[in-house]
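Structure tokens please, single chain.
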Amino acid sequence: MNERIEKINELLKKMPADSFLKHALALEYIKIGNDAQARALFEEILSRDENFVGSYYHLGRLLERNNENELAIKWYEKGMQVAKEANEMRTYNELQNAYEDLI
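Here you go.
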């Protein structure tokens, strides 16, 4: 396990519900090719905190890489809805671009 993953896991022991830390950990898992662990973390984040808009994009991209395009589309759509409601227009635009590229 790499050093960053170890450090994030140590922080998560102190703050186990921290969505930002879980998101960072998921990104580290993607870097080492562990999509399954990353996916589980993104899904956990979004099931507990649907307003953590950054995870929608990364989960959608992960699903695309794994040829789960229909599921990726659903996550992009949900993310666009949440981002729009939160007035997170930059995230909304990123999600919309990914969505349009896929469909």
